[in-house]
Design goal:
- By secondary structure, the chain is mainly alpha-helical.
- It contains 13 helices and no strands.
- It has helices at 7-14, 26-30, 32-36, 48-77, 81-105, 110-116, 129-137, 153-164, 168-178, 200-211, 217-248, 260-267, 273-281.
- Helix 11 packs antiparallel against helix 12.
- The chain starts with 6 loop residues before the first helix and ends with a helix.
Length: 282
């Protein structure tokens, strides 16, 4: 009968490197010292660590989302659709991670949150400049949403850039035109800072691809990738409002909004309207 090896002998047999005094480590590559020391609770409440980490990790996922969306937009402009599809699919998966994050935060009870809320002052997720960039890139343009970032020129410049640029849906419409599908001229060049307005003509353009997927497979696929993103984004918003109602009820938000009532209004915003309305016509 063989004697089981000791754990240290197994490690030695594997040839694993154990001395990192002269090499880059996992922690140094990921800058874990900075990341893991970036949590500074202001209250004595045990649950504030959950609150901080949930929001910090969400911001990291949003950073990746912006990275992928910016690259996807560039690929759409260059008609490099396979690469764009890969990135758009990743955006949908990132949103799934953000949806699950609300599930963790929902373990916080109303008394637990009430104990730490005074320490938040006026800070609020409403002020997230990355979230605002995501909304602008998805087409939900609103000039008033620039104001919360005006106290920092660098943040304002980043948000304003996405505010003034075509949304990913605008780029999809322009791509349809380049691929031979008729699109009204005023949707190819317009004031990109204005909210997108649904059009029967744009629905008809999408219907060309959806009724002839063999001929317009790439456009058809693009429509479905964008629908996936909005589907996931709606779930993200819904989990947000549900979690907020579960924890604070109908109290006003720390950032000054009406809280749940405001978030419920946002549930009604449709980003890519023709991709949803066309389904009734098929």
């Amino acid at each position: 009968m063989n004697t089981p090896k000791k754990p240290e002998d197994i490690v030695k047999d594997e040839g694993a490197q154990l001395d990192f005094s002269k090499d880059m480590t996992y922690g140094s590559y990921l800058h874990l010292d900075e990341i893991l020391n970036a949590q500074h609770p202001l209250s004595p409440n045990h649950n504030e660590m959950l609150f901080i980490i949930q929001h910090q990790t969400s911001e990291l996922w949003m950073k990746l989302m912006l990275h992928e969306m910016a690259a996807a937009v560039e690929n759409l402009r260059n008609d490099e659709l396979p690469a764009a599809f890969k990135m758009l699919a990743r955006v949908s998966r990132i949103m799934e991670q953000l949806v699950h994050a609300w599930t963790v935060l929902s373990t916080m009870t109303p008394p637990e949150y009430s104990a730490l809320r005074p320490y938040l002052a006026r800070s609020s997720g409403f002020q997230s400049y990355q979230y605002r960039q995501i909304e602008f890139m998805l087409g939900n343009k609103n000039a008033a949403m620039l104001k919360p970032h005006s106290h920092r020129e660098d943040l304002l410049a980043a948000v304003q850039k996405t505010y003034e640029a075509p949304s990913i849906y605008d780029e999809a419409i322009r791509l349809m035109h380049r691929h031979g599908i008729t699109v009204p001229e005023n949707y190819l060049q317009r004031d990109w800072t204005q909210p997108y307005e649904a059009s029967p003509a744009i629905q008809d353009a999408w219907l060309v691809a959806y009724k002839n997927p063999e001929k317009y497979w790439d456009i058809y696929q693009l429509g479905e990738k964008l629908t996936d993103i909005e589907d996931a984004f709606r779930q993200w918003r819904f989990r947000h409002v549900t979690t907020v109602e579960r924890i604070i009820g109908f109290k006003r938000g720390t950032g000054g909004t009406s809280g749940v009532d405001y978030l419920r209004k946002m549930l009604g915003v449709v980003l890519f309207p023709e991709l949803w309305s066309l389904r009734t016509e098929l």
